[in-house]
């Protein structure tokens, strides 16, 4: 039986002025992007943020995803590395990073020089792919609520229909993913199953929760939805909007996007800049 693939995640971290963050690994004597293997059960998005922090000392906010790298390792196993463009949260000074056996160099390198500094062709390809997406953008996350009790099994007001235990666990798993995209505005349908899907994130981060009857199935109101989303596209902060499957077509139409049939607890991460959509990533738990 062939050995399972190695899964890893990393980021092309950029900053204003066009610099890109590279790391040097003494074991391989190479220059590359900060990256590392996923821990057991870890989501690639969470791993990406963790690995960048471990290898550079910087906390980052993820932007658009990039094509994954896939290549053979020296041990005969296939390795898949998922990549994102990223921006630093706070101070981007790396001079205080404590070098170690894994990383003995962390440098901001001008984009024009990074091509020659990188050791591998596949990293040069990733750098080129990141070029059109390197400008600072923000994320608007459209989230379908987690798995809830079925309508047939629920005899009360449908607005109060709760999440299943599996849905509650999904809500917990969403916390680091929303944080990775720099979400600081939380908007939700007033229905219990939507509010419960973002409550763990709100409790963990302290960000306020804004609820709307107009985002619920019973109180849906297109002008309110259109105005909310138009405002979020112009905002300089990350946001999440949690709603229901029947309302998703209206949400995507308001954003000028094709309809996406999201599964429970699945999200579409819409990266935007100055009111315009740059790219969109579909993210499942």
UniProtKB/TrEMBL annotation:
Gene3D superfamilies: Nucleoside Triphosphate Pyrophosphohydrolase (3.90.79.10), Phosphoglycerate mutase-like (3.40.50.1240)
Keyword annotations from UniProtKB, A to Z: Hydrolase
This protein's record includes keyword Hydrolase: yes
BP GO annotations: AMP biosynthetic process; ATP biosynthetic process
GO molecular function, one term: bis(5'-nucleosyl)-tetraphosphatase (asymmetrical) activity
Residues covered by the Nudix hydrolase domain: 4-132
Record-linked InterPro entries: His_Pase_superF_clade-1, His_PPase_superfam, Nudix_hydrolase, NUDIX_hydrolase-like_dom_sf, NUDIX_hydrolase_CS, NUDIX_hydrolase_dom, Nudix_hydrolase_domain
PROSITE patterns: NUDIX, NUDIX_BOX
Family as reported in the entry's similarity comment: Belongs to the Nudix hydrolase family.
Record-given protein name: NUDIX hydrolase
Organism: Nocardioides piscis
């Amino acid at each position: 039986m062939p050995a399972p693939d190695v899964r890893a995640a990393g980021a092309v971290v950029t900053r204003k002025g066009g610099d890109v963050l590279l790391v040097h690994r003494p074991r391989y004597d190479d220059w590359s992007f900060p990256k590392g293997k996923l821990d057991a059960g870890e989501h690639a998005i969470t791993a990406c943020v963790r690995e960048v922090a471990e290898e550079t000392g910087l906390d980052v906010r993820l932007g658009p995803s990039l094509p994954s790298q896939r290549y053979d390792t020296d041990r005969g196993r296939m390795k898949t590395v998922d990549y994102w463009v990223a921006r630093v949260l706070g101070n981007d000074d790396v001079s205080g990073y404590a070098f170690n056996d894994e990383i003995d160099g962390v440098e901001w390198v001008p984009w024009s020089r990074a091509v020659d500094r990188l050791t591998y062709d596949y990293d040069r390809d990733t750098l080129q792919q990141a070029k059109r997406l390197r400008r600072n953008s923000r994320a608007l996350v459209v989230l379908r609520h987690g798995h809830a009790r079925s309508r047939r099994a629920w005899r009360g007001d449908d607005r109060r229909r709760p999440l299943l235990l599996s849905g509650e666990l999904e809500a917990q798993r969403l916390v680091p993913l929303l944080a990775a995209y720099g979400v600081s505005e939380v908007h939700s349908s007033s229905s219990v199953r939507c509010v419960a899907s973002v409550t763990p994130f709100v409790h963990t981060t302290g960000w306020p929760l804004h609820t709307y009857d107009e985002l619920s199935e019973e109180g849906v109101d297109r002008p309110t939805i259109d105005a909310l989303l138009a405002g979020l596209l112009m905002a300089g902060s990350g946001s999440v909007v949690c709603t229901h499957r029947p309302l998703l077509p209206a949400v995507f139409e308001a954003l000028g996007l094709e309809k996406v049939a999201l599964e429970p607890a699945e999200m579409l991460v819409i990266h935007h800049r100055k009111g315009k959509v740059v790219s969109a990533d579909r993210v499942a738990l």
